Amino acid sequence: MPETITDPHLLAAIRQELLARTPPSRVPHVMGVEGMAVVLARHWGVEVERALLAALLHDLAKALPPEEQRARLAACTVIPATPEDWECAPVWHGLLAAQEAHDVYGVTDRDVLEAVAWHSTGAPDLADVGLVLYVADFLEPSRNWPGAPEHRRRLQALPLPAAALEVARHKLQNLKTKGRVAHPRTRALRRWLESRLEKGG
Ligand SMILES: [Fe+2]
Ligand SMILES: [Fe+2]
Fold it and tell me: Which helix (H) or strand (E) holds 112?
């Protein structure tokens, strides 16, 4: 079992940095993910402190200009960018945040680092803390597209892997509708969750 993060100073320091960097328009999202991750972790029996830590870290690098994100990508050694990642700008900020979590905040919990690095695509074999963040990032209350409240209630009634599968399917369908190619990690996440659910887990 990874070491539990209990240092409130660490959480406060990350939150402070996150808020200093986040443009006002995105504050409801980052605060929404924080709250949602706590609620969902408790709901699905996942360690709340780890979910909270992952949530606070996940969009830490989001506000960096894309060219600066790309320039820093080669220095990601904790969870390095794959060739597909290099071609997919929306995933860069997660990899950068995981690196910063490790280098600046001393986070060594591999499950939390993977949760942060891969929060926008998901990934096969993601630990429960990663699945919670993946669902929380999608369901947080400031995302208020038509039907969102019903969707939120329906997903929370499912077991965690089934809810994460619904999110992966929804994202894949969205990309297809827009004529965009999905990241291979999202397709691999869907296959992994489908086979996990077929086996009853
Ligand atoms: Fe993000
Ligand atoms: Fe996010």
Answer: helix 110-117
